[in-house]
Design a protein that fits this description.
With 198 residues, the chain is an alpha/beta fold. 37% of the residues lie in helices and 16% in strands. A five-stranded parallel beta sheet has the order 5-4-3-6-7. The protein has a two-stranded parallel sheet with strand order 1-2. α2 crosses α3 and α3 runs parallel beside α4.
Amino acid sequence: SGYLDALAVRWGSQADLETLATHATIPVINALTDEEHPCQALADALTIRERFGGLAGVRVAYVGDGNNVASSLMVVCSALGAEVVCATPRGYEPPPGALGAACAFGGNVSLTNDPYEAAAGAQVLYTDVWASMGEEEERERRLRDFAGFGVDAELLAAAAPDAVVLHCLPAHTGEEISSDVLYGGQSAVWDQAENRLH
Ligand code: NVA
């Protein structure tokens, strides 16, 4: 705290980050933990606002792992009035704390195990890697468990005609997102990445 004006921290443990922030006398910014990725969610909200003029009433479908990105997306988007549907395989749902925080904003948040149910009519289709940093050893198991949860042209066709696709990057094409969708006309991923600058 004596050396710096502020501290941005990216590391594995949310609990350790909260301990650090408790003892720091300077601002501590969560730049990603195992549980949250709030700066990413702010960039995501900005991207959605650029495309749709706001978040109120926008249906946001997250398909994949109920991880840090999913948790923060649910909280931020529901706080700003979006409807959020999160589709994960059984056992990979976002933690109850994240769901509770999202619901505390009075948001319209729901969970499903069916990617097509989530994507139906969605204006935003969002995905992230199936094995996050620190989960590399689970990768093979996760590839099996997430079969059928990839965002591809068929799933995108179930979304609204003006839907955009988001991904926080880096992407694993052929896994959680197909190459044609990532690089296709409905991808807003590059604007989304640029919005991390702000
Ligand atoms: N869920 C991913 C996000 C990377 C920006 C991870 O934690 O590795």
